[in-house]
Design goal:
heterodimer, A: alpha/beta, six-stranded mixed beta sheet, B: six-stranded mixed beta sheet, five-stranded mixed beta sheet, 28 strands, about 45% strand
Chain lengths: ~575, ~425
Amino acid sequence: MVKKDFFVWIACSLALVSWASAQERGGLLNRLLPMKQGNNQNRSGQPTNAAPANRPPSGLPTPAPAPPPSVNPAVGESPANQNNPKIASNPLADSSLGPRPLLGKEPLPSESSIVVATEAEKNQKVAENWSKPWACLFLTGRQHGYIEPCGCTGLENQKGGLNRRDTLLRSLEERGWDVIPIDTGDQVRRIGRQSEIKFARSAEALKLMNYRAVMYGIEELKLSSTELYLNLTDSSGAFESPFVAANISILEDDKPDRYKIVQVGQRKIAITGIIGDILAKELQNPDVTITPAAQSLKKVASAIQAEKCDFNILIAHTTLEDSRELAQLAPIFDLVITSGGFGEPLYKPEPIPNTKAVMLQVGVKGMYAGVVGLYDNAAEPIKYQRLALSSQFEDSTRMMELFARYQKELEQSGLADLGLRPFLHSSTREFVGTEKCGECHTTAFEKWEQTPHAHATDSIVSPPGRGDVARHFDPECISCHVTGWNPQGFYPYTSGYLSLEKTPQMVGSGCENCHGPGAQHAAAESGDIEVSKEMLVKLREEMRLPLTAAKDKCLECHDIDNSPSFHEEGGFEKFWAQVEHIGKD
Amino acid sequence: MRTFVLAFIFTLLGGGLGYWRANSEHRRVGDVVGETIDLESLLKAESDINSSGEKTIETASTSGIADPNAIPKVEVIGGIELDFGMMKAGTERSHGFRFKNSGQAPLELKVLGSTCKCTIGTLEKSVLAPGEETEVKLTWKGEGYIRDFAQTATIVTNDPRQREVQLTIRGKIGRTYFLVPEELNFGEFSARESFTKTFQLYSCEETELVVPGYWAGYEYHQPFVKLQNSIRRLASNEKSEYADARYVADFTVEVVPGLPAGPVNGQVHMEVGPDRTPIAIRYAGKCLSDLRIVAGSNYDSKRNSLNLEKISGSEGGSKGFFIAARNPTDKTVEMKLKELIPENLKDQIEIEIGDGIAKSSETLFPITVKVPKGTPPFNRSGTSPKNYIKLTFETNLDVSNEISIFLKLVVEE
């Protein structure tokens, strides 16, 4: 009986081994059973004299093999490189997509990429069926100030945010994986005190999440160098900054680190970052020195080579084209993480011609994270998954606490310390408040009261879904949720909203946000000021907003980030129907 | 005997399953085995990638090719990126990206579910025979409220070398008048120094540009923010980037000493053209005082208190902050500790002043508060500044030669 069981067990084991080996390319069965292409190639189509299937861990990933002789060499691949074993030619490299005109610098345009999460993006399976990699890279970047999805269009519809990013990151760490978070920079996108505070809190968040390498983006380099320096060091020397850059110095020559070495068990990963000349030339910060990218990268690449790491990573804060060129210039890198491009990251890594490297994008507005698994499997050294930071990832408590502190800091600063003093409206008129408008325009007022515009301020005092963190001290939220602010400039107009207590009449997104400030018009109509008949008519005319001009006015707040549905075909007409009103009763 | 038969059957079964699985996996990742890959499978795979996410870098997508030439090859004639340049607000522009199959097998194309805000036309043909071409059109309408845009759309293909093609369109929305740059960064500057910044106001009108009025937005800024401009017609070869522009007003903004210390945020207002169109450019920066505390979020500038939190007395430790000092002369700034209150803490904590780090506008002095090992516990926190540690530093500066800070610190066992 024992014998019988033993043989059955052996047979089943063999069957299981066969099954399991088939799960990975290059497995036992694959080697035993030749595929259609014949014996001279393995399943991956590599000639059998390519790197052994189970090569030692060092030197990952396997350089892509040269194309078979019968395949035309990829365009742009020099014969010299084909003969150079150190510079692996890449059969995927292809420039047949025609010329790629260098579009110049790639700052984030005011319109780029829609933030709405698709159904598939709300139901992603994270690194499903991945075995434990020897290291897991977690790639983010280009947050551009979007530290949280604000919820304007429903939290479940929006992508991005540090709180979701943290949840995803921790879920990977909880698998027992060695996770190495890396960021390509651009935490903010504007200058001014609020951006400085936001940058400081973002840097704190990155530190909390144990980011191992963070590149400076061109946007934060426009901020105060003192603020940047504070995030690099403290006077006690106890703070280890994750910031890294091969060609940026802030106040001191050795700040930040030129490269980082991350130890994972017995292996080492080198990470450096570079900012492209095309972006650097526009920077005017006397305390930030940026040296030419090519020269600096070569120097740092030599130093990294001397470290004999198992995997080398370049963070390229520049255009896509420039990222490719820099990688070709210093072909020691296995992976290039670029901040170039405008839309979503590609699903697949892009091979860089004439190098062994592949390139990954991070997208814009911090909406995506890339997960990269590094494996000892020569046939499959890297796995990659692009993940949308959708509502499927819950809010991380520690990030929400940090976000609450950010809001508290804005509250404590107050508008004056944020450098925000009211400007006179371009019409030179002043605001009077919606209730005053309603004294004469009763029908329109009653209509307004039934619209979400009337509750716009309430929705930031107690935000739906995140009621415990108020945002009515945050100028970036206030500007569209009260009356009397410039919606795109994030500053108050003279006589506009200042606080719930000081200006209760400016609560809600009132009539004057679209029609313009009406204090003089109201005063003239009620006889509080004496004006000529012509002036009376002129003041009335100033308040009129023809429907043809209304759409542009709406779009000042209902922009692509906050109101994507407004931008769908017929969006304006649909929403206008909800607020349609007549002028005077 | 029965046992052997069973073992044999199981072995065969396992082997068969493994072989089938190997083949199905092999096909799933899309390697071409001398045949055209099914695009639907690819799209499903893309969808799977989206949801389940396994994505392998295929280091050899040409693997398994019986006849390596018999594969499709996608080519985008004219490139994958297009800059529409300056578009007039409210107008619409389209570009047809032309796809060609320069390979030897049928090329399949499909627009992947896109988040592009642009309008994406349908592909005229979704399967191209070798040598055939087709077009996909991207259309953008320049809404009035935006300044610039960039959008991408992804086309998936069955070309094993290029599974995704990311098309990009970008451009700027032109107005009659526009500013370069769009905002002025004053950076950090001393209340005692002057500096200048420049910007350009472009006009696309054929009639001569006039700017009858311009001023700094705040009345209290006006004595310190001086403006000048000169207007000229653009030469035909000048600024090709702004091809529609005809005139430019070169503005110089001179900031003279006197602005109050703190964040500076203002606007230069202009009235432009015969109908006095209002246009404004924002400026922002920070006016620095001669001596200031620089610390992180634990520093409350209104109370001038810094929370150093807790340090273990038995293990010792240190925390720090900076003092920034500006010297309008060439004299080297020197700094020393003048006073520590309460005095009885002098024997328990050490205050170290590091070498100054020179900035263009000031010098940063690192200040370290050290708690030596074995320091007995004390608590200098709470809500009353009377309980805090007060440090006063003095410098050799002629003006503002002293600065104080209150520290909250708890030394635990």
